[in-house]
Specification:
325 residues; alpha/beta; Rossmann fold; Dihydrodipicolinate Reductase, domain 2; six-stranded parallel sheet
Length: 325
């Protein structure tokens, strides 16, 4: 395999800018086809992005023998079914988050991969963004000494600019998304905590539907005890006023703290010996660094940037916070 030849399944809003164009910009990567159930919209996407082929059927795209990898960018309710079909067809998979509707479904994918030669990477793309690589570097160099605890506060109004727009607001339909806005935003945030701090001892949480928006949980409170002794607390609330919105993570250590936003372009370090703010340029196609790492993995040139097992760990944490299997 000298080139990754892609098919995108689900060429909706996320694929327009955040991810889709990146598949055509990376060396040894080619976007050959896109698929959407609406033929007119699939054709429109293909023509605007200069993609040679378009389909309105998952099976037809998977049947193209020139395609050796697929990007599954459909809503989460279809991730399990399409991922299993792709694995059976022998296509490598780049799978959008949340990985599935539940940890149980994610475990089904993990088991399917164990008897297959298919490679799968979960699209927790923030791992490869410069700001979060900087956080990893600061933690590794003990810029704040020994880490004591981390805390997340994601507080947003019911209509938040942090939530990707879509024609139908499926993100608050639990049958399609698995839950509410927490299920859309928290996977990236929890994945970063796991990548920073490693294995966990225990996790617990509480959730509630306070705003009664489609009867999905809009406030979630979670805690984690990591095996290395680091403690974590997170609060997600999607029913507060516009004035009080917040998107912040602070990691406290024995000699200072690191502060950053999950949607910002800077990381602040405040330690006993140093005080500095690191700024980062906006990446036009935010998933490009992760897709590049995925291409290198599929070609056998690098390790998996985010495995199915790691995606499963995120789903298990979300289930524990929301008291769902």
């Amino acid at each position: 395999m000298k080139k990754v030849v892609w098919g995108i399944i689900g060429c909706g809003d996320v694929a327009e800018v955040k991810s889709g164009p990146a598949f055509q910009k990376i060396p040894n990567s080619q976007l050959l086809a896109v698929m959407r159930r609406n033929t007119k919209k699939a054709k429109d996407f293909a023509e605007r992005h200069r993609v040679p082929l378009w389909y309105d059927s998952v099976e037809d795209l998977l049947g193209n023998t020139k395609i050796n990898a697929v990007y599954i960018a459909t809503p989460p309710s279809s991730h399990l079914e399409i991922a299993l079909k792709a694995i059976e067809a022998g296509k490598h998979v780049y799978l959008e988050k949340p990985m599935t509707l539940s940890a149980k479904e994610s475990e089904t994918i993990v088991k399917a991969l164990q008897t297959s030669k298919t490679k799968l990477t979960v699209a927790h793309y923030r791992r490869k963004l410069p700001a979060f690589l900087k956080v990893t570097e600061l933690l590794g160099s003990q810029a704040i000494g020994d880490v004591r605890f981390a805390e997340i506060k994601v507080l947003q109004p019911p209509k938040s600019a942090l939530i990707a727009a879509s024609e139908e607001n499926w993100r608050i339909n639990p049958r399609v998304s698995g839950g509410g806005y927490f299920h859309d935003l928290a996977p990236h945030q929890l994945d970063l905590m796991l990548s920073f701090f490693g294995e966990i001892n225990a996790a617990h949480g509480f959730s509630a539907s306070q705003g009664n928006l489609n009867n999905v949980d809009d406030v979630i409170n979670g805690i984690i005890s990591f095996k290395n002794g680091v403690q974590f607390s997170g609060m997600w609330c999607f029913n507060i006023s516009e004035r009080d919105k917040k998107d912040q993570c602070t990691i406290h250590g024995s000699k200072g703290y690191i502060n950053f936003s999950f949607f910002g372009d800077k990381v602040s370090l405040n330690s006993e010996t140093e005080k500095e703010v690191f700024h980062f340029d906006t990446i036009p196609h935010v998933q490009e660094p992760m897709i590049q790492a995925t291409v290198e993995y599929f070609l056998g040139k690098a390790s998996n940037p985010c495995s199915a097992e790691e995606g499963l760990r995120v789903m298990e944490l979300m289930g524990k916070f929301c008291n769902k299997p």
